[in-house]
Amino acid sequence: MKRLMLLPLAACTLLSACSRAEEIGSVNTNWRLTGSDRVVIEAYDDPLVEGVTCYVSRARTGGIKGAVGLAEDPNEASIACRQVGELRFREPLRQQQEVFTERMSVIFKALHVVRTVDARRNTLVYLTYSDRIISGSAQNAVTAVPVPRSTVIPVAK
C-alpha cells in the first residue's frame, strides 16, 4: 500500500504534463556557515488550466545535507493560486486530481498540490499537503480560483 503512494511521484517524473517549480524568491531564516535555512516562494503553472499559477511558500533546510539534497524539509507550506491570464482548459478535468508533486526529502516525503473542481460554484480549489511513506501530516493549506460564470469548467465523466 505504501508503495502506491510513490506512483504519483514517479508518474509526475515521467510525464511532461507535470509542472516544475520556478523559484521566484526566498528569504533566509536561520544562518548556517554551510548554507542557510530558507523560506522559498515557487510558482507552478497548472498543466491543464492555462492562465492559473499557484504560488507555494515552504521551508527549505540548508546546511550540507540541504545542499546535496539529503535534508528533510519541514511540513509547513502555504499556497495561493491566481488567475494570471485568460483561462483555457487543455482537456476536461477530473473531479479531483494531483497536479504537482515536489520531493521534500530523498525518498520519504513529498509536497502535493491537488486540484478539486467545485462545479456548483464554478471554482477551482487547490489544496497543498505533505506526506511521508510511513506517516503523513495534517498540515495543509487551501486556495481557490473562481472561474467566470460565462466559462463552464469541463469535467471528465
TrEMBL record:
Designated name of the protein? CREA signal peptide protein
**Organism per entry:** Imbroritus primus
Can you tell which superkingdom this protein's organism belongs to?
Bacteria
